[in-house]
Amino acid sequence: MKKFLQVFCISLFPLFVYAAPTDGDGGYRDTSVVHRQHKNYLGKYNGKKGITNFGVTGNYRGMLYYRNMSDLFDGTYSEEKMLLSTNDGGRQSQLELDVVARPTSTTSFRTDFYLYSPMRGAGYNENETGLQLGVNLDGQMNYEHAKISFRLGGLQYTRLSKLTFGATENEGESLFERNTWDNFQMAGQNYESYYAQGTILRDFRWGNQFCQGLVASIYDLPWGLETRILYAKTPNNGGQSSYLDTIPNISYGGFIHKKFGQNYVGVNTFNSVTYDTTINGNAIGYNIATVDFSLDFYRDFNITGEFGCGRYVEDETLNTSYGEAMDVVLLSRQKLIGSPLKLHLYRLSPSFVNLDGGFSTYLKSTAGYNGEGGSSYPVGANMSDVDFINGNRQGLDVRAEFNLAGLKVNLATGFSEEVDHQSTSVSFGHRINGIMFSRVFAYQNYMGPYSALTTNYRSYYENNPLNTDVIDSKIRFAVTEWNMKYKFNIGNRPFYMFYLGSYASCQDQLSILPVLRMEKSYMRVQYHEFEAYYKVNNKLALDSYFGLENMKGSYGYTKAQNGAAPVLEFGKAIGLGADFVLAQLTNLYVRARWFDFNDKHNENSHYRGFEGSIELKANF
Amino acid sequence: MKKIFLCIGLAISGLLVQAQTANPKIQFNGMARGDMSHNWLSSDDTTNVDQSLGGAALIDLHLDIRPSDAVRISSTLRVKNAIGGFWGQGATLELREISIKGVAAKRIKYRFGDIDSRMTPYTLWNYDGECANNEADVFRFIREIRHQENFNYGSYWRNQGGDLSWRLGFDKGVESIDFTTFAMRNRSLDDGKTPDRLQAGGKMLFHFTDNAQIGFNYINLFDLPKTVSKTYYEKYSNGVGTSDFGFFIGRIHAFGELGFSTINYVDTADTKTIDTKGNFFEVGLGADLMESQLNVQASFRRVNQNFFSAGAQSKRINYTSDVNVLPVVGTNSYNRTIALLDLLTDDAIYNQAISYGLMDYEMIFNNVTPYGKATPNRQGFDVALTYNAIDSTFETDVEIQLLQDVAGQGSEKKKNYLLAQWKGNVYFDKIFAWNKSVSVTAGYQFASASRDEDRVYKMSKELVKPVDLHSHTIDLGASVEVLNRVDVLVGTKMLFYKGTDYKAILNGFNETVKYQCETYDGSQMLTAAGLRYRFNDNISLTLQYDRFNLKDKNDDGNSYKINQAFLLFNILF
Q1: Which site from A157, A233, B2, B333 is most exposed, i.e. has the minimal number of CB atoms within 10 Å?
Q2: In terms of CA atoms, which chain A residue is nearest residue B103?
Q3: CATH of domain B107-185+203-572
Q4: DSSP B85
Q5: Which of A434, A241, A440, A463 is nearest to A363 (CA)?
């Protein structure tokens, strides 16, 4: 062998000087046999013209985050410390690259790279890479009587209807906190839009639910019809990593709409099925069918709503029954009070369970929903905001908007009650320090000194058990909200003042307004958020924030976990910040927040500290 | 991880360059694909996991970088996320391939990195997978995806290494000589005991005229013992040398190849324990008739029982692999083996590496030429005929191989083999001048092995059963364009088998350890119907339903049915 190679090489060497390149690719030519196989190669790129319709956009988001948790519960938590980080919590990329290519006019694909360096020091090599939303492939088919567009992959955001597949749209929010998804805006632009339009710029995720799989829409059909089909996985089909097994957990559904002008009537369905881990496991999930509509009448009025029924299969071996749901909004744009007036009527039976809908579902069991994979725990009887609907609840909300010489007032009140008295606890959010606290304890259930706190994405809530010896009738709720916005000039520059407050109670008697007296209510919760923003110039805006929350449980009715006393909680926060425009499409945001929380009735239920961030964001 | 990050960085840098400056030296091609599939057993199979669901979306971004006219760098980066992995979970970034090629000094072609190579069917050749005899469109495009995933481009093997090629021109006698040399890394283990293994060789191809060529080929799969500790002397070598030729005289052409192989193995005690030599030859004549519409060829070949060529006899399918889709089936709850369905749908059973020993094969698929033309211990005739209608309305192809053992296996008697393959395509749209395409495809394969035994064996202890295994593989398919760009695809693939044969159980050096008697009586049927929307020739969306039915008449407890529905969106750009 060795000799053969030597002879081979030596004999070839002198010939090099006369050499010329061969014709073939690599020089192999077939001389011996007739080839009849593999004439068609798939996936060979050589020689193909490169794609030209190809683009990369994205953003850089560099952050310095500092937190000093100077006091945390009983002092035994490891989170009671100072923290320096390049991330203010969650999965955030420093550099996000959105790649989009369009091979033809009717097809495209996209993905987004997630690149993050924790900057733990040279040599640690703990840089993270991955995909943020993932890979999506799009196609469109155009026919004379129909257009079909579809997207395959995920994550992708879409919506069927509020009660079937959608996300909550709670518009009452603080503008002080930064969002990872915020796009570039000139200094103060978002405060102006919040004042002038009542909302801020939303991205494509707003109101939509995410999934992975196939979503196809068929539109421009005859007779004003359009339809959408969904066959996909959500986190409620086996959790966030259900790809690791091949259990056929899936969600499927769709809608058919009949449009006439701006109005429509539609039918919707959404079904989620998940199997437990036994061989050919028991199916668990839910089936929803609804009718929704949006109709204008008498020019000024609009009625939008949805009716439906659904069932929750907690275990296919158990009997299940369907429950009904209704969510109707009647709107008078001008006629009744000269400004918008909205009436919201809703009823969701306890059997109407849907973890993928635009409402907070009701789960009777104390354990999490088994199909979810661990983090969708029952919230009990939630003391929620106006217009935010919950399962096992029926109620009425009224909302009115006024403009009083530039003071924009949005007043709302609502009352509701359980459909069936099944809840053994009430739950309420901690809005003032919710984002901060969820950064400290991400996605935890029943934690804290009394195992009453659950954190989720950018918020946390508390469960307080009811004294079921005393409470044997339906729990009833009342909530009032005030949102005020005012703008005036200082030095010919706009100064914005926003206030968002609410007061909520739950009790045994139906009450249109919140019950203030302790002996007549089980629980009272109030939030007050003041924000002031000053646009110094087009490149600088100053920000400030003050928040206060107070939760009061009533003796005899509520109790904290582990036999502790009903809560008497105070949460406070003071924030200062600034928005700088450094260059075109590049902003610097500075935020500082002092926070404090204390439950005066329960030992160890307190925390305090400071967090600050400097965020440099450049979009491209 | 660091490497991946580096590669991603490089790729992304390239993207940015492309995006911002439209650098003509960098071009992007590639492929994007999304799929979701749902598999389920028949309703009467209640004892096993009866359903599975999965899917993924991925993009292969192929960078074609041309720093100059004489250099070309290629790389493919794969971005993939599994359906069911949220917020980056299950997402992968993978370097699929990277290579450079060019021309040095305007004379010598070179390639380095992930390169595709082949020589002749007896030296380096990626033999086609089983049961792919003109299968229906509804199956073919799925199999092509398997090929793409496993770098099975034609009969080329994907290897990692480098090669050089150049040509010498002459004024008299020989017009030119093409030279090619290459070296690939076959194995790299870091256990301190197993040496690195390379595969290297070369080819000299003499062009006397355009119609007369003679080639000399050599390839060797060998260990580098110095890559491990001196206490380990293990060393393996498989060398194959051949010469091939082709001459055209008018419409007649003659072709052939002959050569030898060696296997040498030195064990850890530095003792040469294996020294096997084999040989083969093939000669044939062919003719192009009827203005080249008809091609006829006949050949005779003899491949010695000891002939072994790792590069030519390695198989695309690793039959010792576990299947992925619903692996436990039947009332016996047994781990099913690779079946027709898996050949089309399961990437995990595909083999991408040259194997140093003869790989296992499935006798019911093809027990005549499981390693292609280079199948050892075969001698006999091969007759092939190809006809293409001049107006392209139909084409047909038939090939018959009548073979026999060179040496008896476990018996003094030799087995006789027959492999008959026919395929045909009819294009009705061309016959009837229809605007929309309508075509029918068909294929048939008959494979048999037979060996009668002496009465004394039959009447006494039946030590050796007669061999009488035969199988029929039938492919039928149709593609009908029912609307603009919309095709209805239907197809079936049937396999019937019955009989007894002995499979040689080999050690790592192709030495027979024992003969295992296998008796079969059953069938496999894969039927599919699909709807395909073609955005253009390279982009399609397919919704398809497959039904697979395996019947084992020897033990009905092994019978099963699998249903499969899938959606596939394939973009080649």
Answers
A1: B2
A2: A21
A3: 2.40.170
A4: B
A5: A463
Q: What is the 3-state secondary structure (H, E, C) of B172-238?
A: CCCCEEEEEEEEEEEECCCCCCCCEEEEEEEEEEEEEECCEEEEEEEEEEEEEHHHCCCCCCCEEEE
Q: For residue A22, is it within any domain?
A: no
- Domain extent for A256: 52-619
Number of domains composing chain A: 1
Residues of B in contact with A136 (CB under 8 A): 34, 57
CATH number at residue A212: 2.40.170
Kind of pairing, strands B252-266 and B235-249? antiparallel
In this structure, the number of other CB atoms found within 10 A of the CB of residue A159 comes to 18
Q: What is the pLDDT of residues A251-309, one digit of tens each?
A: 999 999 999 999 999 999 999 998 876 667 788 889 999 999 999 999 899 999 999 99
- Chain A CB contacts of B32 under 8 Å are 101, 109, 135, 137
Q: What angle do CA A145, A150, A156 make, to 5 degrees?
A: 145
pLDDT tens track for B321-348: 999 999 999 888 899 999 999 999 999 9
What is each CA distance from A536 to A183, A494, A574, A618, B69, in whole angstroms? Answer: 21, 8, 21, 21, 57
Query: Domain residues of chain B, as ranges?
Result: 107-185+203-572
Residue B47: φ, ψ to 5°: -95, -10
3-state class of B140 per DSSP?
helix
Q: Which of B202, B215, B538 sits opposite A8 (nearest CB)?
A: B202
A16 in any annotated domain? no
Asked whether residue A120 is domain-assigned, the answer is: yes
Number of Cβ within 10 Å of residue B67's Cβ equals 12
B533 touches chain A (CB under 8 A): yes
HSE toward the beta carbon, residue A257, CA cutoff 13 A: 22
CB A152 within 8 A of CB B569: yes
pLDDT digits (tens, 9 = 90+) for A207-237: 789 999 999 999 999 999 999 999 999 988 8
Q: What is the pLDDT of residue A581?
A: 94
C-alpha B59/C-alpha B62 separation (Å) is 9
What are the tens digits of pLDDT across the range B46-61?
778 888 899 999 999 9
Q: pLDDT digit string (tens) for B353-369? A: 999 999 999 999 999 99
Q: What is the mean pLDDT of chain B?
A: 90
Judging contacts by C-beta atoms under 8 Å, the chain B residues touching residue A212 are: 81, 83-86
* Residues B234-282: tens digit of each pLDDT: 889 999 999 999 999 988 999 999 999 999 998 877 777 889 999 999 9
Number of H helices, E strands in chain B: 6, 24
Amino acid identity, residue A241?
A: S
Asked whether this complex has an ipTM greater than 0.90, the answer is no
Q: Which residues in chain A touch residue B106, judged by CB atoms under 8 angstroms apart? A: 20-21
The residue of chain A nearest to residue B17, with distances taken between CA atoms, is A56
What is the reported pLDDT for B73?
Answer: 94
Name chain B contacts of A51, Cβ cutoff 8 Å. 27-30, 573
Cα–Cα distances (Å) from A1 to A140, B113, B200, B271, in that order, read 60, 25, 11, 18
Percent of chain B residues past pLDDT 90, beyond the cut: 70
Facing residue for B256 by CB, picked from A32, A104, A250 = A32
Nearest chain A residue to B31 by CA: give it.
A43
The neighbouring-strand residues paired with B545 are B529, B565
Cα A294 to Cα A266, A327, A329, B77: the distances in Å are 9, 12, 9, 47
